[in-house]
Amino acid sequence: ARAACERAHALQPTLNAFITIADDATLAARLTELAGASQASGPLAGIPIAHKDLFCTTEFPTTAASKMLDGYHSPFDATVVTRLKAAGTVTVGKTNLDEFAMGSANAHSYFGPCRNPWATDRVPGGSSGGSAAAVAAGIVPAATGTDTGGSVRQPAAHCGVTGLKPTYGLVSRWGMIAYASSFDQAGVFARTAEDCALLLHTIAGFDPLDSTSAAVDVPDYAAALAAIATDRPLAGWRIGVAQSFLAADGLQPEVRDAVLAAARRYEQLGATLVDIHLPQAELAIPAYYVLAPAEASSNLARYDGVRYGYRTAHYDDLFEMYTRTRAEGFGWEVKRRILMGTYVLSAGYYDAYTRKAQQVRRLITDDYRNAFAACDLILTPVTPTTAWRVGEKSDPVEEYLADVFTIGVNLAGLPAIAHPCGFDGAGLPIGAQLIAPHFGEAKLLAAVHAYQ
Ligand code: GLN
């Protein structure tokens, strides 16, 4: 844990992967606590990890990478944090992200952009860019993230690590700062599916503090991995491939080739490839970018200068205090989402945009259900291209389009995993995505474990 902290400090000027790194006193206090605790055994005892700074923590400030939470210190831990602490992990710090998790490049952070360890002129992906970069740079073996539209899988792909986005409801959202509540789901980054399995087993399961938490049994994912056959472990499994995804406009040929190579490797492991169709897939981005901002505009109404963090220094009356606090506290991307969300929720536009997008959400969910009648898992690219240069995408819509392969999964609440499957000509990592039916995490992890 001390070495992890030292490495986090040493790489901070180059990567900016952290917003807060544990100081000596915090680390010493945690190590002393652990030494005397019953949690001092078990697979995660003493393991250094990092939390995306969207999870509330009592040990560290929580910022959501926003000026708006300046000075905020949570009086409680997120359930994900509580459970990992109970398993004996040591938190070395809170990682950088896009402000309130809105973005695909970790470029919209009040604390400055995070950089990709493979090439520091490149973005690490987002919004959980700091967590992906921290694992890729060998600072920590594992980190938490959140995935509302791809924020675990996309940075995992850009940084060459494994990232799991569980089924909506499998992991508690308690203490995870809300962006779009019907999409938000906590996830994990690690080098391997095996490590992801250990983490998921620790954080998954019913939590009465989250009203959308699913009351399902949590299998021992790591034990399931240990049990898979060594010879043709995926015999009898059908993996669906949507040709339309591989023929998509703007898909970098090297990404397509690497995903096709991953498909062949799954075949060698015993799986059968089947063609599937996801006819409404192209509507995923427009539907998401109506619904997620709508939910965000409501969730972010709580930042009023009274209850949390930042308050403007200059105001004459209450109304001015609210408006100036929000004008000064939120960054441009967050303001854009609040404006879009408020617009699509307003009388006269609700039916044209929000209701329509909800109907599309249902159609997309049905697409996946129909596809899973013919296959066990679906294989797709994670991102259309490898990591772009910091500052390269200045048009927000261009950035939104980078989510084309990840967002449908969130609209349908499905679990999905991103794993490394190759490199482009510039040496940047490429990821493949496997998607499973609801609560199919054990299969996702087993398939990637077999692949790795
Ligand atoms: N890029 C998407 C967005 O900006 C997804 C972000 C996320 O998953 N938190 O909304």
TrEMBL record:
Transmembrane parts of this sequence: none
Descriptive protein name: Glutamyl-tRNA(Gln) amidotransferase subunit A
GO molecular function: ATP binding; glutaminyl-tRNA synthase (glutamine-hydrolyzing) activity; transferase activity
Domain Amidase: 1-445
Catalytic residues in the record: 52, 127, 151
Pfam families xref list: Amidase
GO biological process: translation
Any Gene Ontology CC annotation: glutamyl-tRNA(Gln) amidotransferase complex
Catalytic activity from the UniProt record: L-glutamyl-tRNA(Gln) + L-glutamine + ATP + H2O = L-glutaminyl-tRNA(Gln) + L-glutamate + ADP + phosphate + H(+)
Cited PANTHER family: GLUTAMYL-TRNA(GLN) AMIDOTRANSFERASE SUBUNIT A (PTHR11895:SF151), TRANSAMIDASE (PTHR11895)
Keyword set includes Protein biosynthesis: yes
EC number: 6.3.5.7
InterPro entries reported for this sequence: Amidase (IPR000120), Amidase_CS (IPR020556), Amidase_dom (IPR023631), AS_sf (IPR036928), GatA (IPR004412)
Family classification: Belongs to the amidase family. GatA subfamily.
NADP among keywords: no
Alphabetized UniProt keyword annotations: ATP-binding, Ligase, Nucleotide-binding, Protein biosynthesis, Transferase
Enzymatic class: ligase
Job description of the protein: Allows the formation of correctly charged Gln-tRNA(Gln) through the transamidation of misacylated Glu-tRNA(Gln) in organisms which lack glutaminyl-tRNA synthetase. The reaction takes place in the presence of glutamine and ATP through an activated gamma-phospho-Glu-tRNA(Gln).
Alphabetical list of Gene3D superfamilies matching this protein: Amidase signature (AS) domain (3.90.1300.10)
Organism: Hydrogenophilus thermoluteolus (Pseudomonas hydrogenothermophila)
Oligomer and partners: Heterotrimer of A, B and C subunits.
Chain's gene name: gatA
Highest taxon above the source species: Bacteria
